[in-house]
Amino acid sequence: MRSAEIHRMADIEERHWWFREKRNILAREIRRLGPPGRALDIGAAGGGNSQVLVEHGWDTVVGDISETAVDIARARGLNAVHADARDLPWPEGTFELVTAFEILEHIEEDHLAAAEIFRVLRPGGTALITVPADMRLWSAHDEVAQHFRRYSRDGLARCIQDAGLVIDEMWSWNVLLRPVAAWHRRRATGSDVVAPPAWINACLTVVVAAERHLPVRSLNGVSLILRAHRGT
User: Which pTM value belongs to this model?
Assistant: First the structure.
């Protein structure tokens, strides 16, 4: 991802509806786990998700291939390390939790990154992964963001299972806004990472938060979320 895009994300992620709801999802998921331990947040960009982990008591390290992202994370008080997701600089079984939010699509050899997630997890440890869904939604945004792919459920499951991880749950997210996203992206000429007007941001926040209470996880969405673990 380009440095300008990372700076843009860091500038808006605190208030932007998409980033805020992703942080809420992360918070809900880690509350399902046992006592906090060591966590690795791969590709943290602005560090918003890493800060959620820290706030919930996790001993968190950020690993990002971008020096820009590492500098931003360090400026925010996070423990950040320059790291390639395909060759992580930690021993096997280091972490109880690894998060990779919107990362695998940026890596041509996504199977190598998935294998590294497996390797650095301790037996029984959890991986939380999100990716953009469905190549039918491919647009200029994906090109600007330097994506290699969007994922089907089968494609993501194959990548994760081939690495040795056991999938606990996979579900769609941003389902209610998918028709709007599809319409917008057919006309898009650049990145979606922009700050909408406050009233639009508030409306989108309400819509996407409604998915917490509706049975829409099995429907097609804009993103896929997966929780997996390394077997004991």
Answer: 0.93
